[in-house]
Write a structure and sequence with these properties.
Blueprint: E1 7-10, H1 16-27, E2 31-36, H2 41-47, E3 53-56, H3 65-71, H4 73-76
Parallel strand pairs: 1-2, 2-3
Length: about 80
Amino acid sequence: MKIKKKNILILGASSGIGIETVKKFILNGWNVTAHYNSNNKKLKLLQKKYKFDLFKFNFSKIGNLEKYLKRKNNFFKKF
Protein backbone atom coordinates (compact mmCIF):
# COMPACT_ATOMS: atom_id res chain seq x y z
CA MET A 1 0.00 0.00 0.00
CA LYS A 2 1.41 3.36 -1.04
CA ILE A 3 1.21 6.14 1.55
CA LYS A 4 0.05 9.44 0.09
CA LYS A 5 2.12 12.48 1.04
CA LYS A 6 0.35 15.37 2.73
CA ASN A 7 0.32 18.85 1.20
CA ILE A 8 0.77 22.14 3.02
CA LEU A 9 0.74 25.81 2.01
CA ILE A 10 2.93 27.84 4.36
CA LEU A 11 2.08 31.55 4.37
CA GLY A 12 4.82 34.10 5.06
CA ALA A 13 7.55 31.59 4.30
CA SER A 14 10.24 33.91 2.98
CA SER A 15 12.26 34.36 6.19
CA GLY A 16 12.56 33.64 9.89
CA ILE A 17 9.97 31.31 11.36
CA GLY A 18 8.35 30.82 7.95
CA ILE A 19 11.46 29.47 6.25
CA GLU A 20 12.24 27.24 9.24
CA THR A 21 8.68 25.89 9.05
CA VAL A 22 9.22 25.09 5.36
CA LYS A 23 12.36 23.11 6.23
CA LYS A 24 10.63 21.24 9.06
CA PHE A 25 7.74 20.08 6.90
CA ILE A 26 10.02 19.10 4.00
CA LEU A 27 12.20 17.04 6.34
CA ASN A 28 9.05 15.32 7.63
CA GLY A 29 8.07 14.24 4.11
CA TRP A 30 5.37 16.78 3.25
CA ASN A 31 4.78 18.35 -0.18
CA VAL A 32 5.35 22.03 0.60
CA THR A 33 4.20 25.16 -1.18
CA ALA A 34 5.86 28.25 0.28
CA HIS A 35 4.10 31.62 0.03
CA TYR A 36 5.98 34.88 -0.32
CA ASN A 37 4.97 38.43 -1.18
CA SER A 38 8.02 39.96 -2.85
CA ASN A 39 11.32 38.62 -1.47
CA ASN A 40 12.04 35.03 -2.45
CA LYS A 41 15.87 35.07 -2.30
CA LYS A 42 16.15 32.75 0.71
CA LEU A 43 13.49 30.44 -0.67
CA LYS A 44 15.30 30.22 -4.02
CA LEU A 45 18.49 29.25 -2.17
CA LEU A 46 16.57 26.62 -0.21
CA GLN A 47 15.15 25.20 -3.46
CA LYS A 48 18.70 24.28 -4.48
CA LYS A 49 18.70 21.82 -1.57
CA TYR A 50 15.05 20.76 -1.34
CA LYS A 51 12.16 20.29 -3.77
CA PHE A 52 9.11 22.48 -3.06
CA ASP A 53 6.81 24.94 -4.83
CA LEU A 54 6.67 28.71 -4.51
CA PHE A 55 3.48 30.78 -4.39
CA LYS A 56 3.71 34.55 -4.82
CA PHE A 57 0.75 36.65 -3.76
CA ASN A 58 0.20 40.04 -2.13
CA PHE A 59 -2.61 39.56 0.40
CA SER A 60 -2.98 43.31 0.92
CA LYS A 61 -4.86 43.29 -2.38
CA ILE A 62 -7.40 40.78 -1.09
CA GLY A 63 -10.01 41.87 -3.64
CA ASN A 64 -7.96 40.11 -6.32
CA LEU A 65 -7.78 36.85 -4.38
CA GLU A 66 -11.03 35.37 -5.71
CA LYS A 67 -10.03 36.04 -9.34
CA TYR A 68 -6.59 34.62 -8.70
CA LEU A 69 -7.97 31.45 -7.11
CA LYS A 70 -10.30 30.86 -10.05
CA ARG A 71 -7.37 31.12 -12.48
CA LYS A 72 -5.21 28.83 -10.34
CA ASN A 73 -7.94 26.35 -9.42
CA ASN A 74 -5.93 23.27 -10.39
CA PHE A 75 -3.00 24.44 -8.28
CA PHE A 76 -5.14 24.63 -5.13
CA LYS A 77 -6.95 21.31 -5.61
CA LYS A 78 -4.05 19.54 -3.90
CA PHE A 79 -4.80 21.29 -0.58
